[in-house]
Structure formats: C-alpha cells, structure tokens
Design brief:
This is DUF2007 domain-containing protein. With about 90 residues, this protein is an alpha+beta fold. The chain has a single domain, classed as Alpha-Beta Plaits, CATH 3.30.70. It is built from two helices and three strands, in the order βαββα. It has helices at about 10-20, 55-65; strands spanning about 1-5, 30, 50. The chain has a three-stranded antiparallel beta sheet, with helices on one face. The relative contact order is 0.21.
Length: about 90
Amino acid sequence: MQRIYEPESLLEAELLIGMLRSEGIKAHLSGRDLMGAVGELPMQGLLGLAVPDAQAEYARQLIAAYNGAQPLPGDEPESLPGILIC
C-alpha cells in the first residue's frame, strides 16, 4: 500500500474514497479515528489515502483530475464565477 494523498477533511476523504472505489481501486483511509482528537493533535497530516502499489499511479491521476476540475460553462452562478457548486 502507498499513501498517495492527504485530504483536507473527512468529507473530502469520503468523497475521494467513493470516487476511487467506483473506478475499482481499493482505497483505505488512515487517521479517521484520530479526528476526535483534533485540538490536541495537529490537524495537518492526520488523514491519508492509501491504495495498493499497482493502483497508485492511476489513483494519483484520478485525484489530480478531481483537484483540477473546473465548472462547465453556465454551471457556476454569476455571483461566484469559477466556483464549482455541488
């Protein structure tokens, strides 16, 4: 297993795990149980997505595409240009 990404939040982690699993990648989230200790532990680096070595490169490509996603023309509200609303 390789740790390939550190999500900013548990919500982002769960979203990415769902995306990776939908592509047939067996993703594992480490640090989920440490989230209750936020305040006593530093927030940075608690969460980590890990995938099997053979699937690591493909998973990195999928996450890079996710992070680089832009709204389709006309999908973002005029008051928030460039913001992707889900």
